[in-house]
Amino acid sequence: MTLILGLDIGGTKSAAVLGDETGRVLARESGPTPQGAWPEAVAFMVELLHAVRPPTGEIQAVGVSCGGPLDSKTGTVHTPPNLPHWNNVPLRDLLQAEFGLPVWVENDANATALAEHQWGAGQGTHNMAFLTMGTGIGAGLILNNELYRGRRDLAGEVGHTTIVPNGPPCLCGRRGCLETLSSGTAIGRIARERYGDNALTAHDVCDRARLQDPLAQSIIADAAFYMGIGLANLLQTLNLSWAHWPCRRATCCSTPSVNPRRRIAGRACGMA
Asked: Which of 179, 166, 268, 175 is nearest to 221 (CA)?
């Protein structure tokens, strides 16, 4: 059996896994991403990886997914908006020195698109997109059966496409980006503004929507509508045959009261 360590670095939380060549997850550890200087965060990532590394068995490599911008060739992470204290972090070199293994660093949306294309619902498709929705929003693109990176590994940054001109300010420096309207971060921010409660998060909005709270449901419906516009733009521009976004509790719920998020998004992009 070929064993591989995997690490997903998010703006809110991070996770490490032990997996095999079939994509099966054998062990998993996660925790909140440290918000201080990047050395503290990298030390935490190393702890997560050691926690899932087995005492016996040969590990072949380490794969890392992280929000961009980053350089997949050198494994350097450049100032991601959702990791504000990271600036030109030589992540690949640091992890290679720690584990003595080959390390690959990939944009998180690209990594999930590759996994879905290889092992998930994207198998057999030649043109597809996988959207990540959490702290931010991104897309991994498989075009003509290959991962499309674009110049400087920045293809698929749909979260930073303008949906509402002069809309809410985004960490990227622009205004009205999809990420400011439909991400988990955006849902939490909008809830705090509308409820007047600075402690609310996207999780709380989902919980309230489950209880048929009309304001919470309207917040999710608005986020879904803008997500639908973003999806429509992506589908029409690239003529994709398949697109998927995960239903995470932070930005979507599976209960009947919240399911309209997907239906509204589908209507907005002409799919329902």
From this structure: 268
Residues ≥6 apart with Cβ < 8 Å to 92: 64, 74, 75, 76, 103, 104, 105
Structure tokens at 108: 């998180």
Residue with token string 């909140």: 32
φ and ψ at 215, to 5 degrees?
-70, -45
Domains contained in the chain, CATH given: 3-106 (3.30.420.40), 121-268 (3.30.420.40)
Q: Is 13 helix (H, G, I), strand (E, B) or coil?
A: strand
User: Which amino acid is it at 221?
Assistant: A
* Position 1, amino acid: M
Inter-residue contact 185 to 202 (CB < 8 Å): yes
- Give the C-alpha separation, 105 to 90, whole Å: 10
pTM of the prediction?
A: 0.77
> What is the per-residue pLDDT across 185-211, written as a single tens digit (0 to 9) for each?
999 999 999 999 999 999 999 999 999
* CA torsion, ordered 129, 132, 137, 138, to nearest 10 deg: -40
For strand 70-71 and strand 76-77, is the pairing parallel, antiparallel, or unpaired?
A: antiparallel
pLDDT digits (tens, 9 = 90+) for 120-157: 888 888 999 998 888 889 899 999 999 999 888 889 98
